[in-house]
Amino acid sequence: MQQRLTQTEEQKQIQTQRLTQQQMLVVRLLGMPLTELEQNVRTEIDDNPALEGFSHDAVDSSHDRIEEDESENNEDFSELREREERLDALDEALANFGMDDEMPQVMHPSIINNQGAEYEEITYGDQVSFYDKLKEQILGVNLTEKQTDVMEYIIGSLDSDGLLRKDSDTLSDELGIYHNIMIDTSEIDKLIAILQSFDPPGIAAHNLQECLLLQIRRKADSPSKKLMEKVISDYYDDFMNKRWSKISSSLGFDEETSRAIYEELLKLNPKPGASLGETEGRNTQQITPDFIVETLDDGSITFSVNSGNIPELYISPTFASLLLDYQKNKANMNRQQKQALLYAKEKVERAQGFIDAVKQRYHTLYVTMKAIIEIQRDFFLDGDEGDLKPMILKDVAQRTGLDISTISRVSNQKYAQTRWGMFKLRYFFSDSVQTESGEEISTRRIKVALKEIISKEDKSHPLSDDILSDMMCSQGYSVARRTIAKYRKQLGIPVARLRKQ
Q1: Measuring CA to CA, how many Å separate 30 from each of 33, 168, 241?
Q2: Which of the two residues, 317 and 282, has the higher pLDDT score?
Q3: CA 92 to centroid of chain Cα atoms
Q4: Which 3-state string (H, E, C) describes 321-345?
Q5: C-beta of residue 315 within 8 angstroms of C-beta of residue 106
Q6: CA–CA dist 431, 442 (Å, integer)
Q7: What distance lies between CA 436 and its chain's CA centroid?
Q8: CA dist., res. 34 & res. 435, Å (int)
């Protein structure tokens, strides 16, 4: 007999993923570049009296030892939890935290950068990042606490040029997975619209066309404003390819109007994020590499995770002695003393969690960079961009055993100093294209070949995209004309008629 569930009997099973507070701390620290992590560590030391730190000059950079220390820390306080009896609520709280013979281990010195290591620091922008300046503007908007958290996450997702290349669905998924914030895409769209009203104009646009339109719409009303908006809305491709005479003719501009509109359009900023830094000078902020990669003459490659000015972290001896006293004399303590110890216990737990999170960040960065070097070994040996192999986030994730989202966070806003210069970690990633022989090659290698062909062309008769496509095919790169045009734009190379000399 066919059975049928009534509406009241019907059950729906929903699977949700909730991160613990410790996991969220690990994720937050993992996404930080080194300079931001240094500030975060200093703030945590100031806020938590149970966390202390000191710096020293010589340190051991052994990666193996940090793994040994991690296993010891994972066993801290475990036996006491099992032995303590549930006497009253306060005793139970204290019993959840204890120790056997020693306090938690200090952070292993391998997490600290060798102060003798030499590295280059590049002047780039001003002392306060444009992300911080955007966050300051949040104070002028009436947002709830949840909306503020989401807004800060969106700001952190902006690229260095100030554009937002993640869609609302992606942002919603990331907020749910990494921050346990459930929010509809429609609410995210509203917050993005608010962010786009911040200074400088054009910030948080999803693409260059929207960026330019946002800047135009912030201008005072005038006939030229409407004409500028029409050019970017209806003739964007022609404008980007410098076909201004065609635009001027189509819109019926006279010579004076044509020149005035064109000059106004050229004043628009395609990278509003950069301009936000430039307004206050370009002399103080420095990019510090997160990785130092050394290529020796014998062909060996070594690297280290740069820990900059992060001090060696450890639990305060004062708080450690308080908890030891509780373990020895808990039977003779009054309620007031136990309350004081409960406060100490909470601070020590928080300090230990922060130490563990910083160590886990180090380990994750280490294994990720190790995998990147293994895949891109040829590039690190000779610095030839054409030797970069196809590599996507999934390739590194499979090699390290980490999640793709974790690799994405490691590679975002991180830099590696190499023998051949300073590179964003994202530089080493590229898609692949399959040749006629079935070989997969990096799109970056194709761009290098394209750039070389154009550099050798006769400038009095520059090569069209069709001819470039044929020449690339003759070299074994099966690339369509439209793909040639796309790569040429990405390389900042104009069309043939504009290259003519």
Answers
A1: 8, 22, 40
A2: 317
A3: 41
A4: HHHHHHHHHHHHCCHHHHHHHHHHH
A5: yes
A6: 6
A7: 36
A8: 40
Judge contact between 145 and 179, C-beta under 8 A: no
What SS3 state is found at 303? strand
* Interior/surface letters 287-316, b for 16+ CB within 10 angstroms, e for the rest: bbbbbbbebeeeeeeebbbbbbbbbbbbbb
The predicted structure's pLDDT at residue 408: 86
Tokens at residue 106, please? 């200090």
Considering only the C-alpha atoms of the chain, give the largest distance between any 2 of them, rounded to a whole number of Å.
95
CA–CA gap between residue 443 and residue 487 (Å, rounded) = 9
Residue with tokens 């003519």: 500
d(CA 327, CA 455): 75
Residue 182 in 3-state DSSP?
coil
Map residue 291 onto helix, strand or coil: strand
Is 98 in a helix, a strand, or coil?
coil
How far, in Å, CA of 70 to CA of 108, rounded? 9
Helix %, strand %, coil % for the chain, to 5? 55, 10, 40
Least confident of 167-171, 323-327, 492-496: 323-327
Cβ atoms of 416 and 422 closer than 8 Å: yes
Measured between alpha carbons, how far is 59 from 67 in angstroms, rounded to an integer? 16
Q: Could you tell me the pTM of the whole model? A: 0.49
Tokens 């060996």 sit at which residue?
300
Distances (CA, A) of 333 to 50, 323, 326: 22, 12, 8
Token pair belonging to 370? 């190790």
DSSP conformation class of 219: S
Q: Is residue 301 within 8 Å of 295, Cβ to Cβ?
A: yes
* Single-letter amino acid, residue 208: L
314: part of which helix (H) or strand (E)? strand 312-315
> Kind and range of the H or E element at 418?
strand 415-418
Token pair listed for 194: 């608010």
Note the pLDDT of residue 193. Answer: 93
Contact (Cβ atoms closer than 8 angstroms) between residue 239 and residue 265: yes
Query: Would you list the DSSP string of 21-90?
Result: HHHHHHHHHHT--HHHHHHHHHHHHHH-TTEEEE--S-----HHHHHHHHHHHHHTTHHHHHH----SHH
Q: Any idea which of 82-91, 382-391, 422-431, 453-462 has the lowest mean pLDDT?
A: 82-91
- Rounded to whole angstroms, the Cα distance separating 16 from 24 reads 16
Alpha-carbon distance 370 to 301, whole Å?
10
State the DSSP code for 110: G
CA–chain centroid gap for 56, Å, is: 29
The rounded distance, in Å, linking the Cα atoms of 458 and 7 is: 77
Distance (Å, rounded) from C-alpha 17 to C-alpha 431?
Answer: 31
Q: Bridge partners of 431?
A: none
Burial grade of 17 (CB within 10 A; 0-12, 13-18, 19 or more): exposed
